[in-house]
Amino acid sequence: MNDNFFVGKKLPNFNLKTSKRDTLTASNLMGNRNIIFVYPKNDTSSCTKENLAFSENVKEFDRLNINIFGLSKDGIESHKKFTNKYNLEVELISDPDIHLIKQLGSWVKKSMYGKEYLGVERSTFLIDENNVITEIWRKVKVTKHVQNVLEFCKKI
């Protein structure tokens, strides 16, 4: 599936726990613009850098009325430890059964040392006030990614 399949579509329904609340649903996000960035694993080098970069820019996104959520398959306790360890400002969504990650097309075939496996593709989704996906960044490289997303959001 390419991103044309996702852009212009509604955010899939979900009901997941976060680092800040017992339940977050797609309907909770209605009425606000949101960014959901999907990342592979808490407390790994690139994932930590990405979470810190979004956290450092939360106030800038707030000025644009955009909420920031990180999404991974890590459990809620892992999210809470990760948040506390790095004083993260972003709210982390726990998707241990990878339902939402799969629905967003971020569970993909990967290859390492010639072996294929399924894993999380680092990706970022911009969602409008009506829960419509308006922009997607795939195969994200962490360096300057948050700055690029912020610059894009300032123009809309």
What are the key terms here?
156 residues, alpha/beta, Glutaredoxin, 5-stranded mixed beta sheet, two-stranded antiparallel ribbon, 7 helices, 9 strands, 33% helix, 28% strand, globular
Fold topology:
Layout: H1 3-6, E1 15-16, E2 24-25, H2 26-29, E3 33-38, H3 45-56, H4 58-63, E4 66-72, H5 76-86, E5 91-94, H6 99-103, E6 107-112, E7 115-120, E8 123-127, E9 133-137, H7 145-154
Parallel strand pairs: 3-4, 4-5
Antiparallel strand pairs: 1-2, 3-8, 6-7, 8-9
Plain-language structure description:
This protein is an alpha/beta fold. The protein has a single domain, classed as Glutaredoxin (3-Layer(aba) Sandwich). Helix content is 33%, strand content 28%. The chain has helices spanning 3-6, 26-29, 45-56, 58-63, 76-86, 99-103, 145-154, and strands at residues 15-16, 24-25, 33-38, 66-72, 91-94, 107-112, 115-120, 123-127, 133-137. Strands 5-4-3-8-9 form a 5-stranded mixed β-sheet. Strands 1-2 form a two-stranded antiparallel sheet. Helix 5 (76-86) links the parallel strand 4 (66-72) and strand 5 (91-94).
